[in-house]
Every structure is written in structure tokens, then in C-alpha cells.
Amino acid sequence: MISIRNVSRTYGHGPGAVTALDRLSLEIEPGEFVCVVGASGCGKSTLLSLIAGLDTPTGGEITAGRNPALMFQEPALFPWLTVEKNVGLPLKLRKVPRAEREAKVAELLATVNLLEFARKRPHELSGGMRQRVALARTLALDSPVLLMDEPFGALDAMTRDLLHDELERIVQQRGLTVLFVTHNVREAARLGDRIVLLSSRPGRLKWQGRVDIPRPRRIDSPEVSSLAAEITDRLRDEVASHAR
Amino acid sequence: MLARAWAGTWPKVLAVAIVLLVWQIAIWTEFRPPWALASPADTFADLGRSLGDERFWLAVGITMQRAVLGFVLAAGVGLLLGLAVARVKVLRAALGSMITALQTMPSIAWFPLAVLLFGLTENAIMFVVILGATPSVANGVIAGVDYVPPLLLRAGRNIGAKGISLYRHVIAPASLPAIVAGLKQGWAFSWRSLMAGELLVGVANRPSVGTRLTVFRDLNDSAGLIATMIVILVIGLLVDVAFGSADQAIRRRWGITE
């Protein structure tokens, strides 16, 4: 579904150049939920921008199908539009007829449990609700691939927990392929079918492994906790080797 | 409700009262003869008479017609110019600083040239009014486009907006507050340019607020003169209030307001 082969991205030229990603290769199967974990500066966000086509690699090749949908840490909603118009904009840009659009927006808002907030503006909603609107808008792209850049990083633990459940349900219902970037190891263990660890500066594939914990999972279950601890140790080695 | 309205109003009422008092004290001290400085009572009586005089309304009408036409044209030119400069790199390098330079040029300094170019005509006045307001509007557009949050641009591109649709659905609405600020400033510049123009360029058979000022000075009619100045002030304030409420409406919609 997503194929990343030997991809590099360097910013700038000469001695001041910074390599954000260095010959990274990664294959993601259709319907797979992959979590990418790494310390700051490991090129996680760069990777998503490259896959989404908002940036071009300096080396290597990426195939990711038609228009992968991207979700950010901030909701990035348009403050001048109501909730329903924010969600409807991707459809409008695809020239979906009005009646069909309205039905689709209602369905998406129902999916994220926000139907009664359709006429509100983003600033009238809580952080978690805004992020759910952003998710609905991303889903409106009807893309089989969902790229998520620390989407719940700015939320409190309770809200995040609820959104994990919601995201898991939506992804399973729609059979989406997800690449989920996070620095929260527990979150990765809670959500991922596979976890990929990136090293930092330059970003390289450090380690990857399957998550065999059966779903539904809980973030506070012993299995998730012990997997999180294991990954944290690997991550710590990585960070320490850089501090030296 | 009434108490709150009063809480907002009384400082303004007090300020006006103090101005009137200082003015009246100047009259009492006979600081200047009445033909040079009319009393508040005489001035407001004159203003009251003017309001019932059709020549007054003709003059205000012509001035407002010029103001609106000049402002609309300047807004149109400014929007297009601003968009072009914001979008095209070469134009920005060529014109970016020139627009700001043009803005610092006092518009009254353009009038002698305008008179040589167009004579004592409407066109001379329009030329300077448009020159006065266009740079502000253009700068507002440029600032608006430059400061669109990059995250919104990324989000917009990802959901399928590109080229014109990116402008229509993301860049234009995101720059709206800066554009309104530019329009507001542009209005202030065009209103000032217009008053300067009407004082300097008296077009035959076209009575205006500016020509009334000239006539009252020539007649040593300070009551009429100050009354006309009050009219200029009030018109400026009313338009400012209109822009202020447009700005407020945007802020409320966006949730920027407290």
C-alpha cells in the first residue's frame, strides 16, 4: 500500500546541510496500522510530508496511492468555517454535488460523534472535539491511507484514551491503512499492528517489530505496558548513544 | 443593559464636554475676535441651519460621491496590485518597497502634478485619492497573504485545494482580517487626500465640503468653517465605526475576540 524505498531528505546544501531522513525503506501492507516512534529530530514529520506529497525526497522513491490523507498535531481547522463546512470542504473541492455532500458530512460527523455540533465554529469546541472534526475532515478525502502526525499529542490523557478507541473502530470499519507518528510509546503499543523505531539525526530505521497483543487493547493493560517498557529501553539506548 | 451602555458612553460624553468647555472658556476670555473663532453656540446654530439647507447636502453629496468612487477604485487597484506582488516574486522585488515608499509620500504633494496633468478637474482629485489609498490596501493584501499560517496551507493542499481553489478557499479567507485592516487604513488616506484635494482643486460648479471650507474662510465665517469641520470629523468617524464593526464581526466568527 505504501512503499518507501531508500528515501532520503536533506535540507540545505554544503556543510550546513541537515539530513532529516537517510535511506529509509519501509513497506506497509493494505489495512496495516503502523506506528512510527522516535525522539525529536528523527524526521518523523518529514516522512509524513514526503508520503503526502507536500515535500519531495532528495533521494529514493515513494509510492502511496492516490492522495494520502494527512492529520496534524494541531487540528488545522479553518476558523472561518463551521464544523460541517470544514468537513465538507474536501468534498466541495472534489465537486461532489451539494445533496450528496450534506449526507456525507452528516455521516462523517456521526462517525466521530459530533453530529449535534455541525453548526458550531472550531473555537467553540474543546481540543478533543476539534481533533475529531479534523479526523472527520481527513476521512472526507476518502483516501484508503491515513497519515497521522502526533494527532493526539496535545490532548489530555482521558481524551486521548477515548480517541484511541474511536480511531481504532473507524480504521477497522473502513479498512484503512494507517501510518501513525508519535513519541508516546504507550500510544504506539496501544494502537499499532507494527511499531517502527527511527533513530535521530539522521533519521534511519533502527528497529521494527509486530505487536501481537489481541484487540481490543487497553492502554493500561499489563501487555501494553510491558511492550511500552521494552520499546522505551530501545529508545533510551538510541537517545543515550546520541548524548554521548 | 442600560447601565452597561452608560458605562461605555459616559467617558466619551465627558471628553466632548471638556472640549466644549475649553472652547467656551477661550470665547469668554475673548482670546480671538468672533469672526476668527466662533462660540460653540453660534457654531452649532450654524450647523443646524446647514442641515436644512439643500446646498449643504449637495456639497456633502458630491464629496461623498468622490470619496466612495475613489475608495472603491483604490480598493480594486490595491487588491489586484497586492495579490500580484504577493504572488509574483519579480513583482515583489520590483514593487514591494516602492509601494511602501509611495505610502510615506504625503498625498498633498501629488496635487501640483495632478493639476498639471488633469487641470482643475474631477480627474485630478480622483488621481490623488486613488494614489493615496492604493498602497495601504495593497500592503494589507500582501501582509495577509504572507502571514497565512503554513499549517493551514498544508492542510488546504492535503484536502485537495490547489492553484485558484487554494486562494479561494484558504488564502483569501485567511488574509481577510489583514485585508480589512488595509482597507480601513486606505479609507483614512483617501479621506485625507480628498479633503486636501477639495481645498486645492476647486472644480467649477461642483460645490463640495472642501470648497465650503474655502468659501467660509474667505468670508471670515468661522461658525460655518468650524461647523463644516465637525461634519468632516463625523463622516470620518462613522466610516471608521463601519470598518470597526466589520472587523469585530470577523473576530467573532473566528473566535479571536475575548
Outline the secondary-structure elements.
The complex is a heterodimer of chains A (244) and B (258).
Chain A (H helix, E strand, L loop, with lengths): L1 E10 L6 E11 L4 E5 L6 H9 L6 E5 L5 E3 L11 H11 L4 H14 L15 H13 L5 E5 L7 H18 L2 E6 L2 H7 L2 E6 L4 E7 L11 H22 L1
Parallel strand pairs in A: 3-7, 3-8, 5-6, 6-7
Antiparallel strand pairs in A: 1-2, 1-4, 8-9
Chain B lengths: L1 H27 L11 H12 L2 H34 L1 H16 L6 H8 L3 H25 L3 H9 L5 H37 L8 H10 L3 H33 L4
Helix pairs in contact in B: 2-10, 3-4, 3-6, 3-8, 3-9, 4-6, 5-6, 6-8, 7-8, 8-9, 8-10, 9-10
Question: Any descriptors?
Answer:
A: alpha/beta; 6-stranded mixed β-sheet; 3-stranded antiparallel β-sheet; globular; B: 258 residues; mainly alpha; MetI-like fold; 82% helix
Descriptive notes:
The complex is a heterodimer of chains A (244) and B (258). Chain A is 39% helix and 24% strand. With 244 residues, chain A is of the alpha/beta class. Chain A has a domain at 74-142. Chain A starts with a strand and ends with a helix. Chain B is mainly α. Chain B has helices at residues 2-28, 40-51, 54-87, 89-104, 111-118, 122-146, 150-158, 164-200, 209-218, 222-254. In chain B, helix 8 runs parallel beside helix 9 (209-218). The interface between A and B is medium-sized, with 26 and 20 residues.
Short description:
The complex is a heterodimer of chains A (244) and B (258). Chain A has 244 residues and is an alpha/beta fold.
Separation, N- and C-terminal Cα atoms of chain A:
38 Å
Task: Tell me the distance between the termini of chain B.
Answer: 19 Å
Q: Shape of chain A, please? A: globular
Helix and strand succession of chain A? EEEHEEHHHEHEHEEH
Seen as an oligomer or otherwise, the chain set is heterodimer
Outline the biggest β-sheet of chain A. Answer: 6 strands, mixed
Structural class estimated from helices and strands of chain B:
mainly alpha
Listing every helix as H and every strand as E from the N terminus to the C terminus, the arrangement of chain B reads HHHHHHHHHH
- Average of pLDDT of chain B: 90
Structural class of chain A: alpha/beta
What number is the mean pLDDT of chain A?
A: 89
Shape of chain B: globular
Q: Mind describing the biggest β-sheet of chain B?
A: none
How much helical structure, as a percent, in the residues of chain A? Answer: 25-40%
SS field, number of helical segments of chain B: 10
Radius of gyration based on Cα positions of chain A: 18 Å
